[in-house]
Every structure is written in structure tokens, then in C-alpha cells.
């Protein structure tokens, strides 16, 4: 379309130029003929005057006057005068300046020379029609310009259609930005508008389908929490983590509610919803807490880096809160729940962890009266458990020494069939244990140190970029903790760093976890927009939170999303995960957003993901994280 419009433009430019050149030649020819006609007229007048002079006498004053009168009567003479010594002696008509006089003839008066007759001739009459700038020329010129304007007027709807088509191809189409033509709309535009409305509606339905499928696959409809599959996937991912970490699982069994379910289903459903809302306030990926409704009356809580003693206190507090707010008016307020807790470390078997949690639950049920029982394996080392005070001391020491390790994990792009970038992963070392950022940054957030760690990480990454030759032509993904994005001081500092490092600014992609975008957070949105306005690209990671939806893709400039390991892990054996991933790809791609997978650890996982439309991935299957010296 642009080529066609360009050719039309060049054609009309050529027509206009040719017309102007032809008009120029016509004007020059007209001027030449006009000058020739004027000269012929002058020559004719001069000859007439020359023929008249011999019949005239200038002997006396009366004869001089009579001679001037006779000469003024010659047709075409507008003024005549007799000059002597540059002074007008006799004249008829208005003579112009000496330079404008048309004809001068020396004459002798009384036998003395020095006198002169001067003439001013009228303009040449009867200019030939062929010499005039004809109306035909003006009509041709006018037709050319009117034709050009008319062509532009007719092409405006086509240009409008072209703009719509481009917006569709780039995924930026928004009906609010376009309005159908009100004046003589093209039939094609009416048809395209109809198709565009259908396309927009279809795209909206696709996004809604993806959100609903996410809820159907991983969300319990009644409580609004994650379901059993979601919880088991999260537990399996954390147990298989390469880093040494510890955590706990608590099972809340509201077995007395089974009787209520049979007697009053409506009240049972309302009670489950209230319990769900209470657990919702507990669920926070940022705080390393995940909750789910695993069964009819069973709820589960997965927490990382939380001391068992603190966990028991939290469970007892939740029981008191429920006793006061939910079960106060029910007949079994003194015994409505039993809680079993087990602790684990990375590498433990998921089945054994849940079995020990169930064992603890059975013990609590034997005791009764809203009992909480903790089962702790003797294999769990005491020195890996930290409280808030120990975490703060440990993290402050690392900040003071700038003691942090950076690793780079390759990111594989399907379209290029190669590694196009690296994600920066940070680690802390505590004795012989390596602690991943997914653990220590949430803990840093709890004690108010997350912003300082993000500053340290970015500063070290930028410095390593200078010396890392393998990073020069690669994208560089850096995780930002939500606390940092909300911090105006941090955003100002980061923008200043990027303003003097254009080489990094063009390569960097900042990653933000999906859970941070679930709620409308003005401070977070302000920070995201400030970096987006500076030309920074964004990636949303860990996509798959059961409480999230894809609305943030419309609200923010996101170039890529990365699906969580909980979805990717063993996806080849889960039809629900595959269906969710496929609909997610369709929805995101329609919005111009690429879908990647994180945590890909096997060929079978990657083959399925690639067949479902994944546009990129990272994980152990493509390469383990290494330090810059090993790239």
C-alpha cells in the first residue's frame, strides 16, 4: 500500500513539474513575442514621425507651436515636445522622465542646431490573441492542482485503512483510537471496521478465556485460593530447588464442617469463603507464603524460611482470629479446626513431606480442641533456621562488605535459534550454603533492606558489563524487587545510572514478578512508567499466580512474560497445564507480547513448550547459571 501511495505521489509531482516547465516556456515565448510586437510598434511610429517632419517648419514661434500640434495629432503619439538645451520649449501631452522617452529627433531651428523633438508613444494596441496567456493554460494548471488535491482527498480513507491494518499487524489496534468515516465511507472500510470489531471482541474473549482457564486449572472456585494442583506444584518446585533452603507445610483441617455441609450447604459455603478470605491475607509470594484449599475442608499453607516456633504461634493466632470472627456464632466454636505442621529442606520427597504433615494433623486431631501439632524431622539442621534478627544481621554484613555473587543464565530465543541474552541471578554465601535471591530478597524486604540489595546488584552488573565481552551483543535481564520500584529515590538513582550508560540501556530488560501487578499500586505503577518513559523494556516473570489475570498487559508496556516453573515443571504430563500455556500464548501474542518459559529442565518439557508456541526459554536444559569468567 505504501509503495502504491508513493508511486501516486511521484506521478503527481512529475505532472506538476512538467506543467510548470511547460508554463515557463510558454511565458518566455509570450514575453519574446510581446517585446517583438512592441519594437515593431515603435519602429512604425518613428517612421510616421520621420515622414511628417519634412512638411513642418520651425522658423517662427507660431510655426514651432503649429509643428508640435501637428506632430501630436499623429496616431499613437501620446506626448510631444520641443527641447533646446535640455529645456522644454513647447509640449503637448505629459512627457515622462528623459529616460522613459520613446523617440528623439534632432532638428535645426533658425539654422541653429541643438534642438530636439521628443516623443512619448502610447502602448502598442491590438496585442495578438496568440501572444496572450490563454485561458486554456490556466485551465490546465488549475486542473492539475485540483486533480492532485482530489487524489489526496480520495486517498485519505485508504490511508486510514492502512493505519488500521498496521495497528492490527503490530498488535496495537484499539477501537477507541479509530472512528469510522462519517462522510462517504468506503465499502471496504465498513467491512474492515466490522472485522476489526469482531477481532477486538475475539481478542478480549481470548484473554478472558486465558484468565478463566487459569482460575479453572489452579484456583478453587469457592474459596478463591489455589487448588490442590497449584499447591502440589509449588511444593515440588521448592523441594527441587538447587539451593539449600528450609520451609514448612501446615494443614488446617476443618473436619467439623462436614456435618454443616450436610445440614446447611449455604452456610457451609459462606463459612468456606470467610476462611478463604482470611487465608488470602496470609498468601504472599513476596513473603514466601502460598496457601491453597487442597480438599473439601482442608487448607494448606506453604512457607519458606520461617522458623517452626514462629509458625506455631502464627497458626494459634489464626485460630483465635477465626474463633472470634467466623465461628463465634457456631455451635462448635471450641473445636472447629486441627492443624498439623511439618518442616522440610530442599531435596526432600514431596510425598514424604505431605505424609509427615498428615501424621502431625492426626496427632492434633487426637488431642482435639483446635490443637496445633508440629512434626519436625531430626534431619533438619538447626543452623539453617534464621529468625528476623539473625537475617537482618546477616544481610547487613553482606551489604557492608558488598559480598554478593552474580551468575548469568542463558536465555534461548526460538526465532533466532540461539542465546540472545542472559538473566542476572544473585547469590549469597552463608558458610557452605548458597542462598538464592528468591530467598534472601524477600527476607531483605521483611527487614527493610531490599532496595539496598537491588542497588548493589545493579551496580555490580553494570561494572561487570564493561569487562564482559560476551555480554556486549546480548540482552541483559535484571530482576527488580517491587520495594525498589516503589522507591522514588531508587528510581531517580537508576535513571541517572542509565542516562550515562546508553550501551547498557539499550540491552537491559528489567523483570518484575507477576504477583506485584495483581493489585493497583500507584507507587509501583509510577516507578514502572518512569522507567518505561526512559525506553526501558519490561518482562513479567513467574506468570501463573492463581489470583492474577492478564489485564496488566494492557496497562503496562510489557515486551515479554515468563511462565512460572510451577506450570513448566512436568508440563508434558499435564493436559491442564498445556491448555493453560497454549491459551496464554494466544492471548499474549495478540497483544504483541512474547511468551517464554522459565525453569525448563528436560528435553521433554521443552519439546512440549515449543509445540505450544513458546518463543523463548531458560533453565538447566539450556545452560546452568555461571559467573562472568565462565561465559
Task: Describe this structure as you would to a colleague.
The chain has 20 helices and 18 strands. It is α/β, with parallel strands linked by helices and 631 residues long. The chain folds into 4 domains: 2-121; 134-216, no CATH class; 222-384, Alpha-Beta Plaits (2-Layer Sandwich), CATH 3.30.70.270; 388-630, Alpha-Beta Barrel (TIM Barrel). Strands 10-11-13-14-15-16-17-18 form an 8-stranded mixed β-barrel. Helix 1 (2-52) runs antiparallel to helix 3, helix 4 packs antiparallel against helix 19 (575-590) and helix 10 crosses helix 11. 31% of the residues are buried. Residues 181-185 have low confidence and may be disordered.
Largest sheet: 8 strands, mixed, barrel
Estimated radius of gyration: 46 Å
Instruction: Report the count of strand segments.
Output: 18
Strand order of the largest sheet: 10-11-13-14-15-16-17-18
CATH class of the largest domain: Alpha Beta
Q: Please tell me the overall pLDDT.
A: 81
Helical segment count = 20
Helix content: 40-55%
List the domain count as a whole number. Answer: 4
Strand content: 15-25%
**Which CATH architecture of the largest domain would you pick?**
Alpha-Beta Barrel
CATH fold group of the largest domain: TIM Barrel
- CATH H level of the largest domain: which superfamily? EAL domain
Shape: rod-shaped
Spans of at least 5 consecutive residues with low confidence: 181-185
Amino acid at each position: 500500500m505504501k509503495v502504491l501511495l508513493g508511486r501516486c505521489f511521484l506521478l503527481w509531482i512529475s505532472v506538476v513539474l512538467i506543467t510548470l516547465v511547460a508554463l515557463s516556456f510558454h511565458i518566455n515565448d509570450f514575453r519574446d513575442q510581446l517585446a517583438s510586437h512592441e519594437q515593431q510598434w515603435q519602429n512604425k511610429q518613428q517612421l510616421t514621425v520621420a515622414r511628417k517632419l519634412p512638411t513642418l517648419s520651425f522658423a517662427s514661434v507660431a510655426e514651432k507651436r503649429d509643428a508640435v500640434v501637428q506632430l501630436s495629432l499623429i496616431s499613437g503619439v501620446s506626448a510631444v515636445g520641443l527641447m533646446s538645451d535640455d529645456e522644454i520649449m513647447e509640449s503637448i501631452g505629459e512627457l515622462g522622465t528623459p529616460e522613459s522617452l520613446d523617440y528623439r529627433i534632432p532638428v535645426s531651428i533658425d539654422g541653429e542646431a541643438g534642438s530636439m523633438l521628443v516623443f512619448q508613444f502610447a502602448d502598442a494596441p491590438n496585442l495578438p490573441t496568440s501572444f496572450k496567456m490563454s485561458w486554456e493554460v490556466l485551465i490546465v494548471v488549475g486542473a492539475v492542482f485540483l486533480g492532485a488535491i482530489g487524489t489526496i482527498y480520495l486517498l485519505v480513507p485508504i490511508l486510514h485503512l492502512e493505519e488500521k491494518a498496521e495497528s492490527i499487524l503490530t498488535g496495537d489496534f484499539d477501537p477507541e483510537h479509530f472512528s469510522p468515516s462519517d462522510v462517504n465511507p468506503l465499502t471496504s472500510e465498513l467491512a474492515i471496521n466490522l472485522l476489526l470489531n469482531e477481532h477486538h471482541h475475539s481478542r478480549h474473549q481470548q484473554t478472558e478465556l486465558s484468565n478463566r482457564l487459569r482460575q479453572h486449572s489452579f484456583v478453587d472456585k469457592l474459596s478463591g485460593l489455589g487448588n490442590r494442583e497449584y499447591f502440589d506444584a509449588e511444593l515440588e518446585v521448592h523441594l527441587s530447588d538447587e539451593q539449600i533452603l528450609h520451609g514448612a507445610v501446615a494443614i488446617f483441617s476443618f473436619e467439623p464442617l462436614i456435618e454443616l455441609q450436610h445440614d446447611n450447604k449455604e452456610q457451609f459455603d459462606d463459612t468456606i469463603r470467610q476462611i478463604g478470605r482470611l487465608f488470602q491475607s496470609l498468601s504472599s509470594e513476596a513473603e514466601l507464603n502460598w496457601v491453597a484449599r487442597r480438599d473439601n475442608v482442608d487448607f494448606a499453607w506453604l512457607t519458606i524460611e520461617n522458623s517452626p516456633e514462629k509458625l506455631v504461634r502464627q497458626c494459634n493466632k489464626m485460630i483465635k482470629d477465626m474463633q472470634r470472627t467466623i465461628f463465634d456464632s457456631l455451635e462448635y466454636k471450641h473445636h472447629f479446626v486441627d492443624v498439623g505442621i511439618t518442616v522440610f529442606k530442599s531435596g526432600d520427597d514431596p510425598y514424604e513431606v505431605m505424609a509427615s504433615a498428615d501424621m502431625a494433623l492426626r496427632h492434633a486431631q487426637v488431642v482435639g480442641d483446635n490443637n496445633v501439632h508440629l512434626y519436625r524431622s531430626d534431619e533438619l539442621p538447626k543452623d539453617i533456621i534464621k529468625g528476623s534478627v539473625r537475617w537482618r544481621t546477616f544481610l547487613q554484613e553482606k551489604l557492608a562488605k558488598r559480598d554478593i555473587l552474580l551468575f548469568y543464565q542463558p536465555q534461548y530465543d526460538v526465532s533466532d535459534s540461539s542465546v540472545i541474552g542472559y538473566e542476572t541471578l544473585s547469590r549469597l554465601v552463608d558458610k557452605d550454603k548458597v542462598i538464592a535471591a528468591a530467598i534472601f530478597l524477600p527476607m531483605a524486604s521483611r527487614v527493610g533492606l531490599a532496595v539496598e540489595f537491588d542497588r548493589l546488584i545493579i551496580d555490580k552488573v553494570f561494572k561487570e558489563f564493561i569487562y564482559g565481552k560476551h555480554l556486549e551483543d546480548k540482552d541483559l535481564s535484571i530482576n527488580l524487587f517491587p520495594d525498589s520500584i516503589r522507591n522514588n529515590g531508587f528510581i531517580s538513582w537508576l535513571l541517572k545510572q542509565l542516562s550515562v550508560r546508553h550501551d547498557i540501556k539499550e540491552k537491559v530488560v528489567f523483570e518484575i514478578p507477576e504477583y506485584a501487578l495483581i493489585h493497583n499500586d500507584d507507587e509501583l505503577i509510577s516507578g514502572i512508567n518512569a522507567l518505561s518513559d526512559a525506553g526501558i523494556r519490561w518482562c513479567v516473570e513467574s506468570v501463573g499466580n492463581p489470583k492474577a489475570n492478564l489485564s496488566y498487559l494492557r496497562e503496562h508496556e510489557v515486551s515479554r512474560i515468563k511462565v512460572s516453573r510451577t506450570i513448566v515443571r512436568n508440563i508434558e504430563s499435564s493436559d491442564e497445564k498445556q491448555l493453560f500455556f497454549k491459551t496464554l500464548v494466544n492471548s499474549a501474542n495478540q497483544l504483541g507480547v512474547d511468551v517464554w518459559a522459565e525453569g525448563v529442565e528436560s528435553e521433554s518439557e521443552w519439546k512440549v513448550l515449543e509445540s505450544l508456541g513458546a518463543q523463548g526459554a531458560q533453565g538447566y536444559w539450556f545452560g546452568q547459571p555461571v559467573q562472568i569468567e565462565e561465559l
